[in-house]
Specification:
Blueprint (H helix, E strand, L loop, with lengths): L4 H7 L2 H8 L5 H10 L6 E2 L1 E3 L2 H7 L2 E3 L10 E3 H6 L5 H7 L2 H4 L21 E8 L2 H19 L6 H24 L5 E8 L2 H27 L1 H21 L1 H11 L8 E2 L8 H11 L6 E2 L2 E2 L7 E4 L5 E7 L17 H10 L3 E6 H6 L1 H17 L4 H10 L2 E2 L3 H9 L2 H4 L7
Length: 422
Amino acid sequence: MSINKSDYIKAINWEQFKNFNGIQSDFIINKFIGILNIEHKESYPAILFPQLFKDILYRKFTNGKKYNKKDDEIYFEELITMTSSDFPLFYRSLPSFKRKFYLYNYKPEPKVPQKEEIPLTYTTRKIKFPKGCLCGLFGWTFPIFYLLKIEQYIPYTLHKIVLGIVCVISFVLLIIFSESDIDFEVEEKEKKYSFFQRIRLRIKRDKLYEKEIEKYHNLLANLPEAISKYEEIRKFQSNEIEAKGNIICQSIIKKALSISTKFIQVNVGAPKGYTEDNLFYRLMKYIPQQIFIDGKVGKYYPDLIVKTSNGVCIDIEIDEPYEYKDKKETHYIGCGDKERDNYFLDNNWFVIRFSEYQIKYYTNRCVRIVLSLKDLIELGDCKYDSLVDLVNKISMPFWTKEEARVMAIENFRENAPRPIDW
């Protein structure tokens, strides 16, 4: 099911963000929609994305600085820093007058400063340590002071050894306390400022107010020039974001990827048939160092595994409607494959499910689908329109248990007709 562009734009606050910053193009959004539309759940081949990956592409666009903000939003300054693949190095290489073009650009809006009220009270916080912690602290502090006191009466080497042992034990105890579930109570008390403290606070407040008033009058005097500089930087930044849209998209997509839970290779994995071996053989020609068989993740054994260069894995499953020997129905709707898929997705794996029929008659296209998804994960980009078109061309519906039984009776795996475009 394809994503509706207007709904997506509304969900991520793109229209308001674009208008405020003078961005003309929807290139970034169109790219995200294209990537999200690769996910295909309605039929074979099924392509499933981890939820963490999708959540990043659904972050809201927000005006503001990159740092000290929420991680579930994309800030304007963050987009600026993504215009270079190595922004810190790029920023340091810029001349000082040019650096302001790559920082968040505040709109000059003169506001009359207001004097803050001097507070009457302030709050103090005191941490209450459990008695066990205090006993441990004083218990191991005493030997240190004792050693320092008798240092002149014992050999220097022995002094160093004993002091070292005490320090190591103290460090170990500190780690144990920090990792334990001990609750440290915080006691808060409200106290009144003294007369002289309030005078000092008032003097400090008045000095700050004078500086703010001076800034305010300077801004009023130079407002046309300030607005002109703001517009100049704003135009530069919006043009830079549009020009480097592809690099920005790649950066966001790569950051959306979390390393998958590691798999272990076993001597005997899931049973392999002709189609698994055929796809494995074809993929070995393109990615011999990244395709694996006989792997295990938790209690599951993927048919094939693709491990990308950035530690993200793809679980490739090849489904047949029934078992070859006893004709028992398999991989039908409701058989438990969804729970299996969710386990891999929760562990930051991507999942591709092909039908045996697709591997048998559309092997090359299936290989292209796998390689395209690998490119998306490694490069942050792929030809998503071609990939979606490819998926739709070889699409095949999931089957029910009853349909699987009929296919078993008809020996579908042996007698299935070749597709017209084969």
